[in-house]
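Render this sequence as a predicted structure.
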Amino acid sequence: MAMKRTILLAVWLAVVVSITAARAQSGDVLRPADGLQVDEHIARELQEHRGVVIVDAILMMPSISGDLTRCVFPEVTLGQTLNKDAPRKTISASMIGGGKLAAFGGITSLPPGEYLLLSIRCDNVNAGYGGPHAKFQVRAGEIVDIGALRLDHHGGGLFSNAGKMHRSVEDVSPEIVAFLKARAPRAMTQMVRRPMTMLGPPDSVTRTSIRRCSIFGCS
């Protein structure tokens, strides 16, 4: 049994190592296509009269035991309207491995205006939580930390898509701030904090969109 645990842990760590670089740079500000440093890339985005947004999501979901477990690969989708044909941007939030921040992609640039946090998805289990969950403002030339949207889904177990949902807005973790300061020390001195405003009541009944897959395919 001990050997089996060791093998499983080694496999999990190998997966984390293989995806950490990509996940850590999944935001378009953290992955400049032209090879500029993150500080330089942010400065260019601000000069083009765009704003830079820092956002995180904490998604707690039911496990088989009935307890809550944290989603490994949360993603948030941002947009200005509920129209599905309107432009949207999906970015990765914080990935936690071994109790520590393993990767973060929740920083992106957007044109100025009012935006919605349209949905949260747990990418590794194909579970989606539609919104809109919150709204926030983007201002030209500004780097804004809008905080982290936390969603706790209390349900009937891993294979149940019904349950109760509690939402709240929290501060972005100190680990994420340190992560960003290490990559963009100049830009982070200009950061302002303006938390997103949650839409609707904090508690509600919910059903998630879960795509179940097996060796025979997905449904």
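Summary. The first helix runs from residue 2 to 24. Residues 2-26, 210-219 have pLDDT under 50 and may be disordered.
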